[in-house]
Amino acid sequence: MHELSICRAIANTASDHAGSRRVSVVRLKIGHFRQVVPETLRFCWELHTRDSALAGCVLDVQYIPAVAHCNQCDAQTELVQPIVRCGTCNSSDASLVSGEEFLIESIDVHDHHPPIGDN
Amino acid sequence: MGRFHRHPDGTIHRHGEAHTDTDEHHEHRHVGDHSGYATGTERIEVLELILDENDSVADDNRHRLAEHGVRTVNLMSSPGAGKTTLLQKTIPALANQKMGILEGDIATSLDADALSDLGAQVALVNTSAGFGGECHLDAVMVRAGLDRLDLAHLDLLVIENVGNLVCPAEFDVGQDARAMVYSVTEGEEKPLKYPVMFRSADVIVVNKIDLLPYLNFDLDLFYRNVRDINPSAELFEVSATTGEGLDQWVEWLRSVARHEPTGDPATPYGV
Predict the structure, then answer these.
(1) Residues B202-254: pLDDT tens digits?
(2) What is the DSSP letter of B14?
(3) Do the chains contact at B50 and A109, CB–CB below 8 Å?
(4) Is the pLDDT of residue B60 over 70?
(5) Could you give the maximum distance between any two Cα atoms of chain A, in Å?
(6) Helix, strand, coil fractions of chain B, as percent rounded to 5
(7) Distances (CA, A) of B111 to B83, B102, B106, B116, B217
(8) Is the Cβ pair A34, B131 closer than 8 Å?
(9) Where in chain B is the domain with CATH 3.40.50.300?
(10) Separation between Cα atoms, residue B25 and residue B51, nearest integer Å
(11) B52-257 topology per CATH
(12) Beta-carbon count within 10 A of B158 CB
């Protein structure tokens, strides 16, 4: 259950950047190798923000697949298991190029509350 | 700054950069239901690591410890793997080192009590404040624990993390090295199930080897799984109960205290 700690950190960062403006969306990039359950994260986010200025703010999680680059044959492999190995030549001499992301990418802020219904 | 609209299906439309920020000039029209926003919507690029705040406190902890010449090991494992028993045997074996223990537990002082009177400074951090108790130590909790230790009279600090194979691996607390205790009663497959923890470890202490004759534990398979996840961790086989194999672990701790390099202390995957 470190999702709740993560939500606290996300809320602090979003609030710092928003100042007095209202935040409607927080966009995250989370890599395949991070131990975060998106459903749990959204649940904790709702729990953590519902009585705060961030109430109703949407957590938009972009999943980033884990990809290794082989230093021997230059092939790229998408990894499912957390084993950094080339899927083409089976070499372990491979580097992780993505899959560890754990980033707040952007937020949407508003000077005013959004209208209810259509604009 | 361009404008963005979010549609109910989650897609985002980016409007032209040439638009002004006042709604009166907003010509772009969509058909259908919009749950989007009418006025003053702005996207702010943040591009910060989610645990940035934790990591920066962890760096402060690391500098503070370094200023006092204290080297620090973050000791992690699942509950019951034997961290406390290992430390009960380790503290007397390192009697010539000025050693400190920062004991993290969700509740009780049982482990801290078990380690008192062995010659090490012991400080307890209970994580039970908050939502049912945190399952890990973070850098802020460790900072509070450091306030309760006399750092000027320490060479080596071992942070006994909360027993958990998942969460502690995600939080840098300011350590110089990460060690994990793994007991042979936990099965061969855990490195594959908890890869971040196994990947993060500089040292893996394989504990309870005195029980091997009574278990169906395939040590070779376990090591193959460990090597798939972490090709470089040092592996020590010990029994904290009988004392078997403790020398290697103790010698490794001495090498940490001698300020020998321990790899990249902060990132499990080194990227």
Answers:
(1) 999 999 999 999 999 999 999 999 999 999 999 999 999 999 999 999 999 99
(2) E
(3) no
(4) yes
(5) 57
(6) 35, 20, 45
(7) 10, 10, 11, 9, 28
(8) no
(9) 52-257
(10) 40
(11) Rossmann fold (3.40.50)
(12) 27
Minimal CA separation from B47 to chain A, in Å? 4
Mind giving me the DSSP string for chain A?
-THHHHHHHHHHHHHHHHTTSEEEEEEEEEETTS---HHHHHHHHHHHHTTSTTTT-EEEEEEE-EEEEETTT--EEEESSS----TTT--S-EEEEES--EEEEEEEEESSPPPSS--
Q: Map out the domains of chain A with their CATH numbers.
A: 3-110 (3.30.2320.50)
Chain A residues in contact with B10 (beta carbon < 8 A): 60
pLDDT at B5 over 50: no
Cβ(B142)–Cβ(B159) below 8 Å: yes
pLDDT-wise least confident of A4-13, B36-45, B51-60, B248-257: B36-45
Chain A environment of B228 (Cβ under 8 Å): 81, 83, 85
- Look at A107 and B44 and tell me if their CB atoms are within 8 Å: yes
Confidence of residue A81 (pLDDT cuts 50, 70, 90): confident
User: What pTM did the predictor assign?
Assistant: 0.81
| pLDDT attached to residue A37 | 86
d(CA A80, CA A87): 11
Nearest CA in chain B to A18: B44
Which among B203, B206, B223, B201 has a CA at the least distance from the CA of B268?
Answer: B201
User: What residues in A contact B51, CB-CB < 8 Å?
Assistant: 6, 9, 102
On whether ipTM exceeds 0.90, the answer is no
Strand intervals (E) in B91-198: 99-105, 121-126, 156-160, 177-183
Residue A111 confidence class, pLDDT cut points 50, 70, 90 = confident
With CB atoms and an 8 Å threshold, state whether A96 touches B39: no
- The confidence score (pLDDT) of residue B132 equals 56
Test the A interface: residue of B44, B106, B134, B230 with most A CBs within 10 Å? B44
**Residue B31, both tokens:** 């058909």
Q: What is the largest CA-CA distance in chain B?
A: 80
